[in-house]
Amino acid sequence: MKEALLQIVRLFPTAKGYVRGLISTWPLLGGLLGSWVRQKEGSPGARLAVILGVCWLFAFAWARYSVLGWLLLLLWLVIALAAAPGRQEHAEPEEESVDGDTAPPENDHGNDQDPAMMDENTERVDPAAVQREAEAAFVTFIEHNVAHAVQQGRKGVHTDVLLDLLHREKMLLDWTEPVFRAKCGYLRVPVKRQMNIKGRNYFGIHHEDLTKALGRRPVLPAHRVPDLTPSAAPVSTPDEPLSAPPAVARVAPPPMAA
Questions:
Q1: Is 133 helix (H, G, I), strand (E, B) or coil?
Q2: Cα dihedral sign for 219, 224, 225, 228?
Q3: Using only C-alpha atoms, what is the Rg of the chain?
């Protein structure tokens, strides 16, 4: 019984819906009368005169016979009740687009992506592999500059000089020189506490110590190796130190300095 009463209540409009029903009857009546006036057959002026005459008769009948006017008003209210949306129909839709179609859920890009792009985007990057590559580039940077120092007649390079080269290239800007030395120790790159280079004693990496750590002599990159063939023209040795590979920028500090 309760469910039946609820169904009956749902058939009746809300107050807002009933007002909408009252208003909606005027455009409907106006549209019907307008289309009748605009018909091609006959004279539109005559049809308009008929409408005005009917309105005059309605006003005259209301003034002379008020019962007729109230009946017509009651008829309008009944028509408005039928045109008003019920409580279920009056509920606002959850979300609709401009053309009436239901708007798609946000962030739903599963159907408009290329499968190949999805595979590429969802490929997981191994942080450990990235760090191994960065640390290998870090050691290579040290090796190249030690080999360059030997080529220039020095026995190695100071650690603060190496860090300064990285800072010039906007790499590892938050590192201090002790952190740099700690990273060298973490990667088993030997650092001397006292190393005399051009009369200056400081922490440095000696080419003989690095040779023992690498198991081979430090080498220059291919583009900096001089051509020693007899027919080759003499080439001056560049004085500029070696730049760091881009992967060095991703090197993490040693655990004790993190």
A1: helix
A2: negative
A3: 45
